């Protein structure tokens, strides 16, 4: 597991935007030939939440995992301000049945992959990346 930022979540004012030419990603940029823009990184910015989700789903497909939204928070205006996208196999499943009775193995495997995304000034920024 590789953590690309500080152990704590960064504040919006602490963001240091990337300079590889892919800081702002739009819906048209999701399919790209630039490998630096196809991997999530702290500081990448997006036009909308839908573009972030599509970007991370595409990344997950390339890396061989599914994605899901683990949590989200709304602001006072009832608009989403924060959400976390995780590997669909994250978490640890504890069965109450003995292993002899199971016919289908569990699908969770403690996959640590995730990103945290926050909205600031109508743009969405990746604040935390864990591979």
Task: Write up what this structure looks like.
The chain is of the alpha+beta class and 131 residues long. It has one domain. 11% of the residues lie in helices and 27% in strands. Strand 3 and strand 4 form a beta hairpin. The longest helix is centred in the middle third of the chain and has 15 residues. The radius of gyration is 17 Å and the shape is globular. The chain starts with 23 loop residues before the first strand and ends with a strand. The N terminus is likely disordered.
In short:
The protein is 11% helix and 27% strand. With 131 residues, it is of the alpha+beta class. It is globular and about 55 Å long.
Furnish the topology, listing elements before pairings.
Blueprint: E1 24-25, E2 45-46, H1 49-63, E3 67-74, E4 80-87, E5 114-120, E6 123-130
Parallel strand pairs: 1-2
Antiparallel strand pairs: 2-6, 3-4, 4-5, 5-6
Low-confidence stretches: 1-12, 15-21
Shape: globular
Quote the beta fraction: 25-35%
The largest sheet is: 6 strands, mixed
Structural class by secondary-structure content: alpha+beta
What is the CA-atom radius of gyration, in angstroms?
Answer: 17 Å
Total separate domains: 1
Helical residue percent?
10-25%
**Number of E strands:** 6
SSE topology string? EEHEEEE
Counted by DSSP, the helix tally is 1
pLDDT averaged over residues: 77
């Amino acid at each position: 597991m590789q953590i690309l930022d500080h152990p704590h979540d960064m504040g919006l004012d602490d963001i240091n935007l990337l300079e590889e030419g892919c800081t702002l990603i739009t819906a048209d940029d999701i399919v790209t030939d630039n490998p630096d823009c196809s991997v999530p990184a702290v500081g990448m910015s997006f036009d909308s939440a839908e573009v972030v989700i599509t970007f991370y789903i595409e990344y997950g497909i390339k890396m061989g995992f599914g994605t899901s939204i683990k949590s989200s928070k709304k602001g006072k205006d009832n608009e989403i301000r924060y959400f976390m996208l995780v590997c669909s196999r994250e978490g640890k499943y504890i069965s109450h049945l003995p292993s002899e009775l199971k016919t289908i193995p569990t699908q969770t495997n403690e996959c640590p992959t995730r990103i945290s995304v926050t909205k600031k000034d109508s743009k969405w920024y990746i604040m935390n990346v864990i591979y």
